[in-house]
C-alpha cells in the first residue's frame, strides 16, 4: 500500500510538471498575457523508509528482510489544510465565497488540461493541502490504462473518468483563449452552472 501511495505521488508530480510546461508555453506564445495570475503549487516531497531485520538467534527473520515500511512526507505548515476537489467530482468542494475557491478553480483547470492533453486517459484528483503544498492525491485513469490492474489504488474511480467531460464546469482559466482548450461541460455541469447563476445551491 505504501509503495502504491509513493507511486501516486511520483505520477502526480510528473503530471503537475506537465501542466506547468503547457501553461508556460501557451503564455509565451500568446499575444497578450492572461488576465489572472497563475498560482504556483507543488506536491510534498516524500520518500519510503524501510526498516530491515538485523537478524539474531531469537529472530525468525533473515538478516536483510524488510520488517516495516514508512511513507515520510514533507510537513505542510502555515495555512489551514483544505480539501479542494474530491475524487468523485471534478468541481471544487468550496463555495465561491470561501477562501481558496479561486485556487480550487485553478486545480479544476489543471484537471482539464491533463484530461484533454492525454486524450481522456488520466488526470489528478483528490486535491488537498494548501495553496503552496498539496498531498495525498489520486491518479484517475481510463480503464484502458490499467487494463484491469490496480495501479493507483481504490480511489482510482473509472466512473469519474468516464463522466469528466459531462461534469467538469469550465472556469475563467479554462476559457482563456491562449490555452486553446475545448469547452467541456454539459448535462450536470450546465444544470449546476445555471443553478449558481440563479443563486440556487
From TrEMBL:
Pfam families per the UniProt record, alphabetical: Alpha_kinase
Q: Where is the Alpha-type protein kinase domain?
A: 1-184
Query: What would you give as a GO molecular function for this chain, any one?
Result: protein serine/threonine kinase activity
PROSITE patterns, from UniProt?
Answer: ALPHA_KINASE (PS51158)
Kindly state which keywords UniProt assigns to this record, in alphabetical order.
Kinase, Serine/threonine-protein kinase, Transferase
What organism is recorded for this protein?
Suillus placidus
Is Membrane included in the keywords of this UniProt record?
A: no
Q: What is this protein called?
A: Alpha-type protein kinase domain-containing protein
Amino acid at each position: 500500500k505504501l509503495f502504491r501511495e509513493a507511486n501516486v505521488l511520483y505520477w502526480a508530480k510528473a503530471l503537475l510538471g506537465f501542466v506547468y510546461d503547457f501553461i508556460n508555453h501557451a503564455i509565451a506564445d500568446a499575444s497578450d498575457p492572461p488576465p489572472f495570475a497563475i498560482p504556483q503549487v507543488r506536491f510534498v516531497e516524500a520518500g519510503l523508509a524501510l526498516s530491515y531485520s538485523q537478524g539474531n538467534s531469537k529472530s525468525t527473520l533473515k538478516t536483510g528482510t524488510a520488517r516495516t515500511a514508512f511513507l515520510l512526507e514533507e510537513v505542510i505548515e502555515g495555512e489551514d489544510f483544505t480539501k479542494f476537489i474530491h475524487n468523485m467530482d471534478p468541481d471544487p468542494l468550496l463555495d465561491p465565497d470561501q477562501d481558496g475557491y479561486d485556487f480550487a478553480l485553478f486545480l479544476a483547470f489543471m484537471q482539464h488540461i491533463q484530461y484533454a492533453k492525454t486524450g481522456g486517459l488520466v488526470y489528478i484528483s483528490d486535491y488537498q493541502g494548501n495553496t503552496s503544498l498539496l498531498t495525498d492525491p489520486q491518479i484517475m485513469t481510463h480503464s484502458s490504462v490499467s487494463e484491469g490492474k490496480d495501479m493507483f489504488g481504490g480511489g482510482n474511480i473509472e466512473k469519474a473518468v468516464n463522466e469528466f467531460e459531462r461534469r467538469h464546469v469550465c472556469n475563467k482559466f479554462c476559457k482563456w483563449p491562449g490555452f486553446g482548450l475545448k469547452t467541456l461541460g454539459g448535462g450536470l455541469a450546465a444544470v449546476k452552472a445555471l443553478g449558481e447563476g440563479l443563486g440556487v445551491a
